Amino acid sequence: MSQFHAVLFSQRSFMGGVHIRKSSQILGRSASSISLSPLNTPQNVSADSEFFRFTPQNMMVQIEDILSAIPFGKMQNFIIFMHFLMFTSSSFIIYNYCFFLMSPTYMCTYPDPDNAGLTVQRVCQREQFCSTNILNPPTSWEIDWNSKFSLNNWITTLDMHCSSSFEIGLFGSLFFAGYLVSCAIFPPLSDKYGRKVFTIGVCFVQVAAMACLVFVPNLQLYYLMNIIIGASQPLKSMIAYTHLMEWSHGHESLLSGILFCYDGFLFTLCPLFLLFVTKNTMLFLYIGLAINVIAIISFAFFYFPESPVFLLDQGRFDDFSTVIKRLYIKNNVDDQQQVKLNNLITRYKSQKTERLESRKHNQNADNQKGIMTTLKSDFSIVYNLFFMMLNWSCASFTFYLLNFFIKYMPGDIFINSIVSGLSCFILLIEGPLQKKFSSKLGQAFSFALGLSSAVMICFFDKQTNQIVLYSLVLLVAKSGAELAFAFVTLIHLELFPTHFLVTSYGICNIFCRMATMFAPIVAEVSNPLVPLTFLIGLNLLGVMASLVLKKKQQINLNQEELGK
């Protein structure tokens, strides 16, 4: 599995593209010099002892060294459990918009043309009884609750049977609007105040929002709660995710891959619930609400530590000492490991003053060189940034357009959702693809998968009987979107200089989220050729924009040739 899986999910959400353990090196963040509380370092350990030979005086101790020395045990297992527990709570809403907003099967009553005074019933579309321009409108209509496609969802709860496509698509657009605003506010705050407070606080926010959705069926309130849930999502998919990765040193790729596949598997699991357990989509809100409540109770009764990376990077050694002492007890750490780790922490603090002065000097230089100055000084950055904004927008828009549009696609929505949900496993081949070819070709290949499947979808009519074949084509389309997300994250490392790397992620993600806000609206257009045209056009644009990217080595070679 690729080492970049550790950053994939946070990139899908916004700008966690560089693993947080590296961010202090990339950004050059400084930390205040705070005195280190005693960490029980044995007094008889001399400067020439085995432990000091392990970290020689001429070697700078990095946060990476301390993380490597922290013994893995029960405390980390509990942290992993809590993150896996709470991570999918909002996914039960995000991944099921197609079911929440799917119109039921309607039965319309018409006068019997052969028998005066009698009526007949037949299946109809909502336009037939909602529109005033229909000839021979039905005398009445009702929901066919015997149909498996008639769900107790937001359409029935909020009586949106005759609502416009814009009003229905607005749910998803408002979610992305909240998401976009949150991305610009909370991630920087987490670098100042820590991960823990946001990881716990988001559970309280989502409990309140989901409780409103469960107990107060009001359209305007539902719109507002979708904004709030959208705003809360980056706190889980970025900040909480970062907290998990910072406590999982040495296991990032494995845990990230499992977490991502587990979360993506909900695309397959949720339709099975609706088919075999209940037709009430309120079940997903109950599950999300229960997950957050259980998480809050667990936080109240069990110790949940702050990120070690944050505490060390900010120089909060007293707090870090408290965390480590608890870890020693919880993980039953032996004396030798304690001495080794305490020695590293002491060395790290002793180097802090010198490191701080160096960082301040670098920061002053960086402050004088702003974003616009960087862009003006190197055209290759502007060139790659423009095409990466296109690639990010194409990947994000197609991924979410498929999620919203699936309820209008030919075939069976349940089979389509179950089969396409298996696309989460496509990421297991992302690493081998990148090694065998390149990130650039892998990204183009991902969009090509989406392009070819979108073209094939056009050849299926609405009443197709080839349900299994259609669902497999949809699986290819969804797999292409999944892979595209993986590669647009990965290729940044090969395109942009270190000092501009995180900024490039931020710019691309803000731009793509603004574009993705319109995906739910496009999905609701009555003419199915419109969404399919978007899928074909965006994937084609993604292929072309991927192929014209220039890696840093290629740029340097071109510049040398021009110099000659």
UniProtKB/TrEMBL annotation:
GO cellular component: membrane
Transmembrane segments: 78-102, 168-186, 198-216, 222-242, 254-277, 283-304, 381-402, 408-429, 441-461, 467-493, 529-549
Pfam families for the chain: MFS_1
Keywords: Membrane, Transmembrane, Transmembrane helix
InterPro entries in the record: MFS (IPR011701), MFS_trans_sf (IPR036259)
GO molecular function ontology, one term from the record: transmembrane transporter activity
Name by which UniProt lists this protein: Organic cation
PANTHER family: SOLUTE CARRIER FAMILY 22 MEMBER
UniProt gene name: Contig328.g359
Membrane topology of this protein: Multi-pass membrane protein
Subcellular location: Membrane
Superkingdom, natural source: Eukaryota
SUPFAM superfamilies in the record: MFS general substrate transporter (SSF103473)
